[in-house]
Amino acid sequence: xxxxxxxxxxxxxxxxxxxxxxxxxxxxxxxxxxxxxxxxxxxxxxxxxxxxxxxxxxxxxxxxxxxxxxxxxxxxxxxxxxxxxxxxxxxxxxxxxxxxxxxxxxxxxxxxxxxxxxxxxxxxxxxxxxxxxxxxxxxxxxxxxxxxxxxxxxxxxxxxxxxxxxxxxxxxxxxxxxxxxxxxxxxxxxxxxxxxxxxxxxxxxxxxxxxxxxxxxxxxxxxxxxxxxxxxxxxxxx
Length: 238
Description:
The protein has three helices and 14 strands. By secondary structure, it is an alpha+beta fold. The strands form two sheets. Strands 3, 4, 5, 6, 7, 8, 9, 10, 11, 12, 13 and 14 form a twelve-stranded mixed sheet that branches. A hairpin with a 7-residue loop joins strand 1 (about 55) and strand 2 (about 65).
């Protein structure tokens, strides 16, 4: 038997995993449940883990997996683990992202995969050089993407570990130049440095917020930051 708050937290975690594939941060869980401190979230997570509803994955900062739901709420929707087909791209050529096209490499259960260009590395830590040219592609089923143009980036650094994004992961980005507060975005700073951070709007300023207390939040003028896209999915090699 779960308490109301345990119920609410379990459903929030399940919905966020289903939407983005990334567990919510402690701050997001705290805000969603209208709690005053993250210590309350820690207690709720421990209670859910003890009752067998969630599992904390070892050696991954606060990575969560929903194992089951209470009777009447339905089973959690499992997310597929990827072994994506890799198709060699044109090295050094800037790809057109106008419209993703079905990959000729794979067709799974009658559904075409879509080839997404991998555009180099993105820093989840100290910003690195701006997005590079295409190196190769990864193939994803359409239901993992949704509408719009997409590209992928390999993550380097640990500043987003508390959002479940680890060094070595590949993030899938929907290309767009606007984002809402709380979105995880690819931000281009001063047209020189690209970084993966959570966006917060503070009046006329933009805050690029890490999900690791070891890193400071950067607050910049809107003229210094260009949004290059929003995180929509995450791929990890097991």
